[in-house]
Amino acid sequence: MPIQNSPYQAFATLLTSSGHNVSPAELHGLLLGRSAAGVGFDQDGWLADANDLLEGEIQDNVRNALIGLQEMVKGELTGDDMTVVLLLPTDDVPLADRAAALGQWCQGFLSGFGLNYRDNALSDESNEVLQDLAAIAQVQDALEESDDGESDYMEVMEYLRVAPLLLFTETKKPTEAAPAKPSLH
Fold it and tell me: Which CATH number does the domain 7-171 belong to among 3.40.1180.10, 1.20.120.740, 3.30.930.10, 1.10.600.10?
């Protein structure tokens, strides 16, 4: 059965062919981490953070893909579905590789969140989510090629599809709830 050219694989090919040795999962995690930290969807800020990770000049085709990725994430985080599509390898990829990508996604998320989160206090629930992500980033080698391993992987993946939304909901700046103050801009 031929391997489908998944969005993950297409992005990996684009990055590799552009000389960037970075996992699409880590890049997607970075973007979601930034977004969940409440920085909004400023294109320049995202491209600057992505540029730091990619270490090198970003060509137009990669830049356009990064902007498209951000638009997708913005739609997911601000939409009504309450779920995020993770940029990860498809199920026909060996579990070890998928688990590694999951770990890279978590590392990217923690980096993006850590670089951009400016307030000090998070709820206990949000702190717990960040601790979970740090733990998941470490356990990628623990998943074994088995039914249990597959089941664990699916559980973790489901968790990661809602974790960013919890943080995003907590950190996004309340817009209409704030009393009207004169703007200094």
Answer: 1.20.120.740
Q: Which amino acid is at 57?
A: E
User: How many CB atoms lie under 10 A from the CB of residue 158?
Assistant: 12
- Cα(126)–Cα(103) distance, integer angstroms: 19
CB 148 within 8 A of CB 67: no
The conformational region for residue 55 under phi > 0 = left, psi -120 to 50 = alpha, else beta, is left
Neighbours of 160 (CB within 10 A): 22
pLDDT at site 113: 95
Q: Residue with structure tokens 């579905």?
A: 81
Q: Tell me, yes or no, if the pTM score tops 0.85.
A: yes
Least confident of 100-104, 133-137, 146-150: 146-150
